[in-house]
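Project standup — Tuesday

K.O.: blocked on the structure for the chain from last sprint. Re-posting the sequence here as requested.
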Amino acid sequence: MMFMSEKQWAQSGIRVSPDTGHKDSGSQSDGVAGGASLNQATRDQVLITKTVQIERKTFHMTLRQNARGRFLRITEDVNGRRDSVILPSTGLVDFRNAINSIVDHSENLSRSETETPESGGQ
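H.V.: unblocked you, prediction finished:
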């Protein structure tokens, strides 16, 4: 399974920024391993960052690495308030599969809500 396609993202109204270094990464990186930045305060190496704007919320997804291993930090920013979740890289495939399952279920619910009895729904 894959996450939403670019066409699906475009149709959803969700805005995705280009791959850029996260503001908290300590430097202006191009967001990829070749230009990885090193946060001096935490010694985390930023490997890649994606930013997604959904309504009033901004989500920063940053794959990082430090002496303890590789991990994904997902930070939600709502009007200056930030909350983060950290996932070890060993759980990324399971996390992706769970998200994909939820997206599939949501799409199926949306389709069934728009179908009428005449069009084969119910």
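K.O.: great, moving the ticket to review. The radius of gyration is 18 Å. Residues 6-115 form a domain with the Nuclear Transport Factor 2; Chain: A, fold (CATH 3.10.450.700).
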